[in-house]
Fold each of these.
Amino acid sequence: MSNRNNIQYMPVVRKPQFNWEEISSHWCDNNFFATHFVNSMHVVFPEGEKFFIRSVKAFADRIKDKELQERVKLFIGQETQHMMQHKNFWEVLQKQSPALDMFHKLYTNMAYGRDEAKWSIDRKKLALSTTVALEHYTAIMAEVALEKESKLLEGIPEEMTRMLQWHAAEEIEHKSVAFDVLKEVDDSYLLRIKGMILASLDLTFYVGMGQIIFMSQDKTIKLEELPSHLFRFIKKTTPIFKGILANVADYFRPDFHPNDNDNLFMAEQIFQKIMTEKAVA
Ligand SMILES: [Fe+2]
Ligand SMILES: [Fe+2]
């Protein structure tokens, strides 16, 4: 039975602290292919999160429902915290690789260089629809990462695990906010699907581009080790790609709603853990 009562999915803005004093250059499972894949996401995500906030804010005055207005505020609060925490990690990454600044500049120019202020209402709707689809992707990745049997976060430093688990849990908590805004602004199925196509192409292209740039600048990589690192990466990420395929297919259902998959309990387990482990402001 679908669960569309959003009261239990009311986001909470938390401000956890993470210590990024040092991290090894191939911190993700001692695997350079995996590390640079996630490093690329650490650059792609914060700019994406700023874009999500702008996309939703563009229609804030059209939201009549008081509860949705509140959820939008809290969604913006959570995404702002995510963006800040990813950027804090950049300080460590920048010391290790000049690729970060190079990729960041290229990525922001290519993805966000156009003059958003002059966008038509239809273009703004497409941006919101792309945000909704990307929020679906982050919610899928979050679920796969937080599943009990998941091995996705194994071989990752403790502080990075805490950070990724917190981010994942909040992605589940606010997964329906942008979707409900789009529903209120424009309920068109075609618009939602166009956003998914655009989001899928953008996500694949920019994360892939970042990974290639990071790897090309990493002088410690031994090319002869690439097949074994790639094989371990594929083996570990197969569940996430299977999860993505199944869940993206679900998104194409005309009556799809993110809360049809009621998985808030997964997020709550993480919040309890984070709150008891270390002080959260
Ligand atoms: Fe986020
Ligand atoms: Fe999000």
Amino acid sequence: MRFLILLLACYLVYRYVKGKAKPEIAKESAATETFQDPVCGVYVSEADAVVGNLQGKRYHFCSLGCLQQFEKIQHKR
Ligand SMILES: [Zn+2]
């Protein structure tokens, strides 16, 4: 009988750990969201991207060079 209680306790801990781990994985995938560079079309993650604020909009670039290129295109219009 004691063994069964221990087994049940282990199972509950396992369920608790498994249930707790799931939202963390979801958070991670949200953090690695990718954005497309409007200049060269390369996909960059939020952490690696060079973020530019242009006319109240947020743009994500792979490099500062692409940001400057984008600003040039915007000024031409
Ligand atoms: Zn780029």
Amino acid sequence: MQTAIKHITDTDIWVALESVKDPEIPVISVVEMGIVTKVASGESQVASGQSSRYARVTMTPTFVGCPAIGVMKKDIYDAVKKLGFEEVEVTVDMDTAWSSDRMTPEAKSKLEKFGIAPPAVMDSDLTEEMLDKVRCPHCHSTDTTLRSAFGSTLCRAIRFCFSCKQGFEQFKPL
Ligand SMILES: [Zn+2]
């Protein structure tokens, strides 16, 4: 049976996923967050010579304390399904840990514009002192201090800026 089916590529899936935002940070997509790790698509043969197009998306489980995974999984499914796939499978890859280092530089800059201090890059050279030098997203001063280890979600801390006297949230490096 020959029907005019638009060919959907993996690139289309990545583009669709750009429209899926992190439910807690609505300016950043799940792709920029580094949550989506793998995308695959193809056709599988079903009965009577017909084929069915499938898409598989693999995502990291994010981390404990940021419980948006169920919402993101559903949003990812819906966005990919809309492209016209008969079968969509969203898998959570428990072997790949999400870390704030997976966020793209664009995501970190959007986070700061959104009013949340982005996480510092985690590497072995990081000292306590560097971790404490968090730049205020409002005035960019580093004269800030930790007020509460937990903000509106467990992955955020609340800090106070001595320079502009405003409180702000920091996305903790994880
Ligand atoms: Zn400030």
Amino acid sequence: MTDDRSGLEIAEYFARLAPTYGAGEYYRKRRAAVLDALVARGRQFPRLLDLGCGNGTYLAAFRTRLDPDFLAGADLSLGMLAAAKRRSAADLLVACDAHVLPFKSAVWNGVFCSHLLQFIADLPRCLREIARCLSDGGTLIIAGGEFGTAERLKQMLGDARWSAFRSELPRPRGSHRHRTLEDYRDAATAAGFTVEARRIPFNCTAADLAEFYRVRWLPLVAPEPRAAMSTALDELMRAHGGEEIAMEEALLLCHKGSVDAGNLSGF
Ligand SMILES: C[S@@+](CC[C@H](N)C(=O)[O-])C[C@H]1O[C@@H](n2cnc3c(N)ncnc32)[C@H](O)[C@@H]1O
């Protein structure tokens, strides 16, 4: 369970990102790749919850691409939820901690968690809660886990510049960024899910990656290091801007209850 202090810190951290999180080409291409993969699967989620929905960029995409009958978002950060409300995509927005879900059992056909689980203190408890709220045959979709963006930036900036850059990237207390996809897979299996792992490829440019760092990280950095980091990103743009970079988003599809073998293929 998130303790009060780290919960508050995480909520405040993300409230500062509420105006910008998910903006720009890198995020757009990553979301599009995930959405394409879900749509291609043809699986329907009439009642869909985006847990850790942030400012609602996925909610807006779900509304247009998946068209669920009932779409809800839940998040710890009131700032993020206020931004999600402005997108007007969800039927319901709920402020809650993902360790204790304020939903009846078996109400959702799909629960989507994108880049949430690294902020969860008690992963087994959170996954048990999600399993409780999913209907039999429902699916938990976990996106994220291994990002690859830091490695790419390191290659382009060089070791010394990257390590100065990285030392300025603020993370909230209670972030478990070293968890791997295997950690999530093992925890979901232990919570009773049947897990499929998929890697979703997408391409971006070095310019998109530089923009991602501006959007995701620079709003959180103090003014002085921010100016130096911004200069480093400008130089990277000049040297590499149009270069294509192959990226991957990891997806874990975690099925609850009896699974039709036909549902496990074609994704
Ligand atoms: C990295 S952002 C991802 C936002 C969104 N899922 C996306 O991919 O665009 C993580 C989100 O999880 C939320 N979060 C972190 N810990 C949480 C918790 N214990 N319960 C609910 N939401 C939480 C944060 O407030 C933030 O909005």
